[in-house]
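ESCALATION

Customer reports they have been waiting on this structure for their group meeting. Please prioritize. Original submission:
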Amino acid sequence: MYDLLIKNGKIVTSEKVMEGNIAVKDGVIALCTKKHDIPAAKQVLDVSGKLVFPGAIDTHAHLNDPGYTWREDFEHGTGAAALGGYTTVIDMPLQNEPALTNASIFENKQKAVHDKSHTDYCFWGGLVSYNFNELKELWDAGAVAFKAFLGPVSADYETLNYGQAYEAMQIVRKLNGRIGFHCEDYSIIRHMEALMMRQKNYTWEGFLKSRPVAAEMVATMAVIEMAKAVGCKVHICHVSSPLVAAKIKEAQQQGYDITAETCGHYLSMTDHDVLQGGAMFKCAPPLRSQNEVDRLWEYVADGTLSGIASDHSPCTYEEKYTEILGKRIQTPFDAWGGISGIQSVFQTVFYEGVVKRGYSPCILAKVMSENAAKAFGIYGKKGAIAEGFDADFVILDPDRQWEITEESLYYVNKISAFTGRRGIGRPIATFIRGELAACEDKLIKAPGYGKLVKRI
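Update from on-call: job pushed to the front of the queue and completed.
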């Protein structure tokens, strides 16, 4: 007898939607059957009329634990993820104290958060100029990829120049690892920021001008060409522009192992939101035009992207509007740059992509689960509704209307650019390894249920 049977669901795979049943044994998918083949199980959940997605993987989140937990912590960040439909979160190495740059820090971070997580989780490893000799040990400890910046970054981390990035690729290639890059060209951004200052353009239009698509394109093309030359696997983080996505697709079609992600806000918000809403919508790269949002969806639909991430970048209200670490905010350039969205992405992209634009829900299963798991070496355990995989599911009611409110958010700081958005279709239950982790607006499993996931 099976432990759990989810019956009469519309099972969403990367290829089709089919009515059927899923049987779970010992936390693993043991059987997928047709609708009328109903095996016996200790617990039976009838989800007639509901979509059953494979658990989504957040390829890019900043949970700030340990170190900056007044912004967010692992308990609240992963709790929000579970409520929103992410079953695995890949946590970034920066905005931690210390940044996760060696194997010892990896182990200490795991000890610090292992009893806090509601979801399963992985760790990105840091890639900075001073840890090249420690990358192998960090990889062996279980990092699923390395994160590097080419654009400006906060003071607790470091930007690489192109020469350093090239050298790092040579090292990581030997590990068969992958480097994720924040692709914005440092020199373009710093020059344009200085130009806006000289022109006294302390406006949100000035901020948008300081981070043009050209800066994202220059850095992305540099990474692609270096990756081609070295043979290193790379991942382009938070793609905001369809022009950039087109270059990534071109490299993929040439046979290079170059993956990429976008974020929920780049698929649902625009530069108009920045001009009207200011700091709450500030992120890097910045939000683009409505036309670019619409065209970026085409690269979600064709599978170019390996993840629709949250880039969850929480902060206090004061860090958006008044003061950051003792420094008073005087212009848009000073405000915290990041959007909190880990609880809201799944329902938002379902509404934007499936409801509004008519795309098949299969594209979300492909991009948010299958492609993401393959890119980070955890496919076979995570990433699909198939026998032998972890029993991670998201039950989504396609007819459920929703509105995101501050009160509904589980974050330490209940502020988000997603607040006020409305739509149709939202996750109502999240299962992780066969156990109900979240249902409606309530967390079911206690913190500590989530486990560290390492590469297969």
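Sent to customer with the following note: The two ends are 28 Å apart (CA to CA).
Escalation resolved.
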